[in-house]
Amino acid sequence: MVSLDVQEAFVAAWWPSILCNLRPLNCPRNLYNLARSYFSESVAILHTNTCCVERNVTVGCPQGSCCGPGFWNVLYKDLLNMCVWCVYVFRCACLCVCVCV
After folding, report:
1. I need a labelling partner for 24 at 20 to 30 A (CA). Which of 48, 75, 79, 89 fits?
2. Which helix (H) or strand (E) holds 31?
3. pLDDT tens digits, one per residue of 56-87
4. What is the distance between the terminal CA atoms of the chain, rounded to a whole angstrom?
5. Contact 99, 79 (CB under 8 A)
6. What are the residues whose beta carbons fall under 8 Å from the beta carbon of 58, sequence distance 6 or more?
7. Whole-number pLDDT of residue 45
């Protein structure tokens, strides 16, 4: 039985961790490079009437993206293989899980 309650999982997905977790999965080089490119040089821009603020983005997957759920699985694969009650608090995300696989 798997029961998950993930708040803001896609918002808190840290890109370096996803890329690091792809290596042990023997991800083909071309797909790894595609993921690395997907995560590089992203910028969030806020325009208002009086100013424009620009920040580099290093976390998150756009909700509704086709690769977001796959990246989430890669990021949390170790957690999904555990058999324990636990509470994990990630940056801006709280994950409460009971997993027995």
Report:
1. 89
2. helix 29-38
3. 888 887 667 788 788 888 887 776 666 444 44
4. 7
5. yes
6. 14, 15, 16, 42
7. 92
